[in-house]
Design goal:
By secondary structure, the protein is mainly α. It folds into two domains: 139 residues, Tetracycline Repressor, domain 2 (Orthogonal Bundle); 130 residues. 78% of the residues lie in helices and 0% in strands. It is built from 13 helices and no strands. Helix 6 runs antiparallel to helix 7.
Length: 296
């Protein structure tokens, strides 16, 4: 019995580490939230939304695994317990799994509509190019990853697009959360670069901390985070349909406070605190919209 449990746990642990399931779930939540922003009392949980959530999960998993494929030399130094350096999976198997997942995710996008197909295809190509080439490019790699994170909300909204398009309030809310996600993730990527500075130096990766120093990089990350905090108060000053601002206030206050705490923390701890803040911010938008829908 003990051997059977271990046999089951090992592949599950491998999948958790290789695909970074937590990131996949965050992407899925982003898609759900993006769809929720354009919801107007029609059928919400339909086939298109479920396909979009599954597609985002799979493409994110593919991007994370192909990143491990190209990052194996860096991970030998920075993260030797990652699946490939630790010997739990081979490079060739990782590449094959990544390609299959990319194709599956794009196919699911095509089943939704042409908008989702286009974004799924573009994001898959960007993830592969990022892992293979752009990761060593100063700031461009950080910006690309941040765009990919922000695009999950757009992907979700596109799964619900109708013949009339989107309302102005929907687009405003979508712009706020997408831009906030871009800024906070950009900041987190810079903090991760500070944490990975030794391995990046040995592999000739040009990052902001390597080129301009840790202090300057932390300052840039702080500025990006502060911009995101200012942007988070935008919903209080615009008219939004089915959006409860009181529900939004409590959670976004906690999220912004978490972001401020992250700015005062060491880089290796700061980016982890920021992940929690990003999760709270997602919950703020989610609950504000859900409460708004059920009340009104």
């Amino acid at each position: 019995m003990e051997l059977q449990i271990k046999a089951l746990k090992d592949p599950l642990k491998l999948a958790w580490d290789l695909f970074r399931i937590r990131n996949c779930l965050m992407a899925t939540l982003g898609v759900f939230l993006g769809a929720l922003f354009v919801y107007h009392h029609d059928t919400f949980i339909d086939t298109n939304l479920l396909l979009a959530m599954l597609s985002a999960f799979i493409i994110t998993a593919a991007g994370n695994s192909i990143n491990d494929y190209f990052d194996v030399e860096i991970d030998k130094i920075n993260k030797p317990n990652r699946p490939i350096p630790s010997g739990r999976i081979s490079k060739s198997d990782t590449l094959m799994i990544s390609m299959i997942l990319f194709l599956l995710g794009i196919t699911l996008g095509k089943m939704i509509n042409n908008y989702c197909f286009a974004l799924a295809l573009i994001n898959s190509l960007l993830l592969a190019i990022y892992a293979a080439k752009l990761k060593k490019t100063l700031l461009l790699s950080n910006m690309l990853v941040s765009f990919l994170v922000a695009s999950t909300f757009i992907y979700g909204s596109l799964s619900k697009i109708g013949p009339q398009g989107f309302r102005f309030g929907d687009l405003t809310l979508l712009a706020v959360i997408s831009t906030s996600a871009f800024l906070t993730n950009f900041s987190r990527e810079i903090l991760k670069d500070i944490e990975d500075i030794e391995g990046d130096k040995r592999n000739y990766v040009t990052t902001l901390p390597i080129k301009y120093g840790e202090k300057f990089s932390k300052r840039v990350a702080s500025i990006l985070t502060i911009f995101a905090i200012f942007l988070s108060v935008t919903p209080f000053f615009i008219s939004l349909e089915n959006f409860n601002k009181l529900a939004y206030f409590f959670l976004i206050f906690a999220a912004d406070l978490t972001f401020l705490i992250s700015l005062r923390s060491p880089a290796e701890l700061s980016q982890r605190i920021m992940v929690f803040g990003m999760f709270l911010a997602l919950l703020a938008f989610l609950f504000a919209k859900l409460v708004g829908i059920f009340i009104y």
